[in-house]
Design brief:
The protein is about 25% helix and about 50% strand. It has a six-stranded mixed sheet with strand order 2-1-6-5-4-3. Strand 4 and strand 5 form a beta hairpin. Helix 1 runs antiparallel to helix 2. The N and C termini lie far apart (about 50 Å).
């Protein structure tokens, strides 16, 4: 018997695909996960459109090593979904590897049976206790 995949699971799989493309430094695959009207706001307040987001994350001195999503919640309304989570980013901006944890929100839209990220926001950075 074939197991049905929920819409929420489809959205999580799309978000994890986008994260994997980011970590793989794969500009073409990353572009494929992003809606043409995509917009992003970083934890520093910087704003990006689709092309500038991909360029800033796949070229230059910034190198992604991993992005993990935890505490994931997905709310779906028709062909739109909002994913909220805590993201852990492992990056190297040219000064050694760093890890950032922060809340992240992504808006996903379904077009032609495929989920595409329309917009997102990450931040502020979470402090670690201890």
């Amino acid at each position: 018997m074939m197991e049905m995949v929920t819409v929420e699971e489809q959205v999580v799989a799309a978000a994890e695909g986008r994260a994997a493309a980011l970590a793989a430094n794969d500009a073409d695959t990353l572009l494929g996960w992003l809606h043409p009207a995509f917009r992003w706001t970083s934890h520093t307040g910087a704003s990006f459109d689709r092309d500038s987001y991909v360029a800033s994350n796949t070229s230059g001195s910034l190198r992604w090593n991993a992005q993990r999503l935890t505490d994931i919640e997905v709310v779906v309304a028709g062909d739109t979904a909002v994913l909220r989570c805590v993201v852990t980013d492992e990056v190297d901006g040219g000064h050694g590897a760093e890890e950032f944890r922060m809340p992240m929100t992504q808006t996903w839209v379904r077009e032609n049976e495929r989920w595409l990220c329309l917009a997102g926001h990450a931040g502020p950075r979470l402090t670690t206790s201890g």
